[in-house]
Amino acid sequence: MIQIENVTKRYPGGQEALAGLDLSIETGEMVFVTGHSGAGKSTLLKLIALIERPSTGQVVVDGQNTRRVKRRRIPAYRRQIGMVFQDHKLLYDRRVFDNVALPLIIAGVSHRDAGRRVRAALDQVGLLHKEKQSPETLSAGEQQRVGIARAIVTRPKLLIADEPTGNLDPDLSLEVMRIFRRFNEVGVTLLIASHDISLIDRLGCRRIALEDGRLQEEETDPWL
Amino acid sequence: MAVTRNADAVAPVRSGGPLSTWFTRHVSTAIASLGRIARQPVASFLIILVIAVTLALPAAISVVVKNARAISGSWENVLDFSVYLKQGVSVSEAEGLARLLSQRADVDSVELITADEALADFKQASGFGDALDQLPDNPLPHTLVVRPGPGNTSASLILLHEEIGNLPEAELVQVDTEWVQRFHAVLDIVRQAIAIGSALLGMAIIVIIGNTIRLDIENRRDEIEVTKLIGASNAFVRRPFLWTGFWYGTGGGLLALGLVYYGLYLLKEPVARLTGLYQSQVTVASLSLTESAAIVGIAVFLGLTGSWFTAARHMRKIEPR
Question: pLDDT digits over A187-206, tens only?
Answer without folding.
Answer: 999 999 988 888 888 887 88
